[in-house]
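Researcher: Sequence of Fe2OG dioxygenase domain-containing protein follows. Predict its structure.
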Amino acid sequence: MAASFTRDSGTQTPTTYDRFQELKAFDDSKSGVKGLVDAGITKIPRIFCRPKVEDHDSVKPIPTQFTIPVIDLENIKTWSDEVVEGIRKAGGEVGFFQVVNHGVPQSVLEEMLAAARGFHELPTEVKKSYYTREKTKKVIYGSNFDLYESRFANWRDTLFCVMGPEPLHPQQLPLVCRDITMEYSKQIHKLGTTLFKLLSKAIGLTPDHLIGLDCSKGHCLLSHYYPACPEPELTLGTTKHSDPDFLTILLQDHIGGLQVSHQNQWFDVPFLPGALVVNIGSLLQLISNDKLKSAEHQVLANEKGPRVSVACFFTPHLYPSTRIYGPIKELLSKENPPLYRETTVEDFISYYDSKGLDEKSALAHFKLQP
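Model: Prediction complete. Tokens:
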């Protein structure tokens, strides 16, 4: 298979390169990026090559005075003003923060990362039974959900599991990660519920307001696997994007590569032992009318690896619902009119998926004209 994807050496002309056929061949192999690495490639296939970055998009020098906020939840039961204010600033100014003393046992974090890696390192023939692009499936193994829409493919594979609002039957999960996925799901949902209460209070609402809007009703777990890349400077692990959910809680390993955009500059989100990374989703920015910001982020490819991370997206995803989401009325006034039109979660995600990771925020599509 690897021979089908080798990048040509300059003897090939543009007319002989059929991008769609190369994408299809990669997709049909059902072996993902890891399959390419296992085949021993030394150059990344052309479908992964990132178009040349223009000067105005290049990364600028990073000021040393900025660091990703870290929120200590140890005294969460007291609802201290310090914690609430920290959440308000982090969610409203950066859109990204890390939480420590969050209540999820260290053993659960370690076992979840190990199980995620264990799945992706199963033989391809075992993983193939989960490989699909049928978005209605609750357990999906694949590489690049937007493979046919994106300008270039990302250097990662993903196991996507819809854990709620309808409970996922454990038997639907691969055996190698079954038990810990169920336990991690339970623990991370509990933490998410707490964070939604904090975020509600931080923007001037009652603690249960966002929960009452079903923001924590459903969640999905995405186990990402970023193999070591032979030419990391030519591609990305994940293209710049913001998440199409209300809130994301990320468990990442020590390899690094996650970056957040702040004031038009990229900042590393460092590995902090025992911490979980939290970022505001686009839907939460929409309903908070920009009181909370969904920061754009990306993952660099790395010659070291594999990098493993597990993202929890708080969203009912494609679960049938008639609930309409728009800017929360309690946050609006004559001085603060609605900035976005109303939408359903399903319509928002459908639009997001249709455009893929194109480095443009989906929120622009839902913005009301001034």
